[in-house]
Design a protein that fits this description.
By secondary structure, the protein is an alpha+beta fold. Helix content is about 35%, strand content about 20%. It has a nine-stranded mixed sheet, sandwiched between helices. A seven-stranded mixed sheet has the order 1-7-6-5-2-3-4, with helices on both faces. Helix 7 packs across helix 11.
Length: about 375
């Protein structure tokens, strides 16, 4: 990666695999990969081959995958990596007590010098251009001091991969922290109170003149929703691109419970139509937020996440171009038509979905996913 261009957008699943392959092939000393979902398929095979080749040329390779997100990956998948001196660990091996707390972070760091972060997981669903095939997602390639900090963050998580979370961890202070570097701010969050992503967003929303958000799962806290509505009422342009198609229907229904109030405040809402939306992008004037975190209850209080806050006018301008490119692919929600079209049943479904995901999810998360046994068998 060119050190004179410290940040660069990755806009498709095809591109992120190509970028990862190039980074792994060029690594000389170390490779760290951390993923929520690493699913069997052509991309997984390609990356495994490149990682094993790196081991064989003397590169130190370590892989950390979330045990729930990657539950469909056979336990033997990384045997060839281990044989070649690579290291692999599961984050938070699955038990009913520990199932709630997941590592949702996604990163690849090579030689402590360059990194790729974003919303992309590894699997067939993420391969494509996000328009004609594959989910719509975004990432950022970067180099410099932030790559070094990401490497250190990986090392800490890799060491503590089987850490046992205490009861009521979501209500306790956590190991969340903010790391300020010359390149930007790294927001590392996990289970617990005082989420640094929420704090940073609330601060930036206060005086913003333009806010553009692309969010796969939109379930922000009451304070964040109020801040968005307040910004729109004072004349700021506030635009949301949310899923028209989704892999989590409950999440979209829950988000719709906010539409009327946000639209009434002047917030513009668009729903992405071609494919499932999985991107996480927030633009606040010349500030960019990019990383693994969604604007929902899990990312803002339960999952381990990483988000970059970058005050970079060039990257923000490119982000606005990406946002503008996707707007014509969306259906705009008309405020009057939306209110007229909503039946009592649809309103009730949206409200119940909100209550389930925003209020009950921490308590019942280990009951809401189905076929756990079947998926566990796939790993054996």
């Amino acid at each position: 990666m060119d050190p004179n261009v410290p940040f660069r957008w990755i806009t498709t699943g095809d591109q992120v695999i190509a970028e990862m392959m190039a980074a792994i092939s060029g690594a000389k000393r170390s490779i760290r990969m951390e993923m929520y979902i690493f699913a069997p398929g052509p991309s997984a095979e390609l990356l495994r081959h490149a990682l094993v080749s790196a081991c064989q040329r003397g590169v130190r390779v370590r892989i950390l995958l979330d045990a729930w997100g990657s539950i469909g990956l056979p336990s033997t998948f990384w045997d060839i990596l281990r044989v070649n001196s690579g290291q692999f660990r599961w984050f938070n091996p699955i038990t009913l007590r520990q199932l709630v707390f997941r590592d949702h972070r996604k990163m690849l760091v090579c030689d402590d010098e360059s990194a790729i972060i974003g919303g992309f997981n590894i699997g067939p669903s993420y391969t494509g251009d996000g328009v004609t095939r594959g989910w719509r997602d975004l990432g950022v390639a970067l180099c410099g001091t932030l790559a070094q900090e990401l490497a250190l963050a990986f090392d800490e998580m890799f060491t503590d991969a089987d850490f046992t979370h205490p009861p009521f961890a979501r209500l306790l202070p956590s190991r969340q922290r903010t790391i300020q570097t010359s390149g930007g701010r790294l927001l590392l969050s996990g289970p617990g109170r005082n989420n640094p992503i929420k704090r940073a967003l609330l601060n930036d929303f206060q005086n913003a003149s333009r806010i553009q958000i692309m969010s796969a799962y939109f379930l922000p806290t009451w304070r964040l929703r109020r801040a968005l509505a307040k910004a729109a009422r004072r004349g700021a342009q506030v635009q949301l691109i949310l899923p028209g198609k989704t892999d989590v229907p409950l999440s979209s229904l829950a988000a719709q419970s906010f539409y009327t109030r946000l639209l009434r405040s002047g917030v513009e809402i668009f729903e992405y139509q071609p494919q499932i939306l999985h991107a996480k992008l927030i633009l606040i004037d010349d500030v960019v937020y990019a990383g693994s975190a969604n604007l929902d209850t899990r990312s803002l209080g339960i999952n381990y996440e990483l988000t970059l806050r970058l005050a970079n006018s060039h990257l923000a301008a490119q982000g606005r171009d990406i946002f503008a490119h996707d707007l014509p692919l969306c259906r705009r929600i008309d405020p009057q038509q939306w209110r007229k079209s909503r039946s009592m049943w649809e309103k009730l479904k949206a409200r119940m979905s909100y209550l389930l995901l925003a209020r009950l999810d921490p308590s019942i998360a280990h009951y809401q996913w189905r076929n756990i046994g079947q998926r566990l068998k796939q790993r054996r």
